[in-house]
Amino acid sequence: MKLIDFPLPSLDFHGHSSREQLQSILSNINSRKENSLDGMEWVFMNVKIDFTSINTLQHSYPFWDQKC
Q1: Of 53, 25, 56, whose CA–CA distance to 40 is shortest?
Q2: 10-63 pLDDT, tens digit each
Q3: Could you write out the DSSP letters of every residue in 15-56?
Q4: Per-residue DSSP letter, 6
Q5: Integer Cα distance of 31 and 53 in angstroms
Q6: Is the pTM higher than 0.85?
Q7: Which of 32, 27, 30, 49 is nearest to 40 (CA)?
Q8: 11 Cβ partners below 8 Å, 6+ apart?
């Protein structure tokens, strides 16, 4: 698996970002369709990120997100 680096040197992620800021960042990445922070799939030009495996965690381990 190849990791993809999205350099964002002008952004400071050490502080808190609002959902609107994060959605704006996601929307500004070149993509074939509009991606949503709440979407289970993000599609970019040559990459598709599928988050559906997280649903398995949610059903098998209902408190997994509190441990992160």
Answers
A1: 53
A2: 555 556 678 889 999 899 888 778 999 989 899 988 889 998 887 777 777 767
A3: S---HHHHHHHHHTS--SS---TT-SEEE-SS-EEE-THHHH
A4: -
A5: 22
A6: no
A7: 49
A8: 25
